[in-house]
């Protein structure tokens, strides 16, 4: 049985390292100066080019926007630069302080707040848009975090929500039995996400010292669509591809446009309340 208090504490501890640090170290722009951060952001949006398609940056000027799960803060800062009235929320002080640092360096406005996606510390209908990429599947209660996103959106407002796919080619090839059992459970009406063991979690999220994220669940497109039923409009896209020693030699841009769109490791839901 999952103990939420312990998981929250573990998440707070694990994510202190600021997600993205591994890539920043690898490419040599892990400094805390404006130039290193700018280099990281350029790399980030080149590496995940579909983010510009799934987040409506150019429609958010003057809108109250909440990002949940900040990591390196590239999306938050891009939202602020696009003119959004930005609030960033994260369970761990590491990413919260990092966002404060980078916003003060660049002089872009916005606030960063510590708190959980499972109890968003804002009243009902506080926001015009929510962006949450790669966060809600770590919380321990995906359904509750989705209902929190719904609660803080005003009527007619939208959100971009990314969670990991249970039915990517990675999952089918490496864990065919688990994936088959999970798909069968969804077919028989269950919305319960699939919690991953140590190996599965390590493939998605490990820190630079090799520690593994305390909690990761994956979900199928069908189950996610059911969880998102409280929203009036929803479209779910598949995106992203895993690193691979052989297939990885194919240009990433090609892989994203073919493999990523069909079997992608991530599910991007674009929804409206
Ligand atoms: C994999 S990182 C994603 C960061 C960023 N959105 C990105 O795409 O690079 C997950 C982020 O979610 C945050 N997080 C984990 N559990 C959370 C929770 N219960 N509430 C709020 N944030 C949480 C972590 O601290 C971390 O910053």
From TrEMBL:
InterPro entries: Erg6_SMT_methyltransf (IPR050447), Methyltransf_11 (IPR013216), SAM-dependent_MTases_sf (IPR029063). It comes from Bradyrhizobium campsiandrae. Keywords: Methyltransferase, Transferase. PANTHER family: GERANYL DIPHOSPHATE 2-C-METHYLTRANSFERASE, ZGC:194242. Residues 66-156 form the Methyltransferase type domain. GO terms for molecular function: methyltransferase activity. The lineage of its organism: Bacteria, Pseudomonadati, Pseudomonadota, Alphaproteobacteria, Hyphomicrobiales. Coiled coil: none annotated. Transmembrane segments: none annotated. Pfam families: Methyltransf_11. The keyword ATP-binding does not apply. This is Class I SAM-dependent methyltransferase. GO terms for biological process: methylation.
């Amino acid at each position: 049985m999952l103990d939420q208090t312990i998981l929250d504490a573990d998440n707070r501890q694990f994510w202190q390292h600021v997600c993205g640090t591994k890539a920043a170290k690898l490419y040599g722009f892990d400094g805390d100066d404006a130039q290193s951060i700018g280099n990281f952001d350029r790399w980030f949006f080149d590496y995940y080019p579909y983010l510009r398609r799934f987040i409506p940056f150019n429609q958010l000027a003057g809108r109250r926007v909440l990002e949940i799960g900040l990591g390196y803060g590239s999306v938050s800062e891009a939202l602020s630069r696009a003119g959004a009235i930005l609030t960033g929320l994260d369970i761990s002080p590491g990413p919260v302080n990092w966002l404060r640092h980078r916003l003060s360096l660049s002089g872009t406005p916005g606030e960063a707040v510590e708190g959980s996606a499972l109890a968003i510390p804002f009243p009902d209908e506080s926001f015009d848009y929510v962006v949450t990429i790669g966060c809600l599947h770590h919380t321990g209660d995906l359904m509750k975090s989705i209902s929190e996103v719904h609660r803080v959106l005003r009527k007619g407002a939208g959100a971009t929500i990314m969670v990991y796919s249970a039915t990517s080619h990675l999952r089918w090839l490496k864990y065919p039995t688990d994936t088959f059992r999970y798909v069968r459970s969804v077919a028989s009406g269950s919305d319960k996400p699939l919690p991953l063991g140590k190996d599965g979690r390590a493939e998605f999220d490990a820190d630079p010292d090799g520690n593994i994220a305390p909690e990761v669940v994956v979900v199928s497109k069908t189950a996610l669509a059911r969880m998102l039923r409280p929203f009036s409009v929803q479209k779910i896209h598949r995106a992203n591809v895993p690193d691979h020693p052989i297939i990885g030699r194919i240009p990433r841009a090609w892989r994203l446009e073919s493999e990523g769109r069909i079997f992608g490791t991530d599910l991007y839901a674009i929804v409206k309340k």
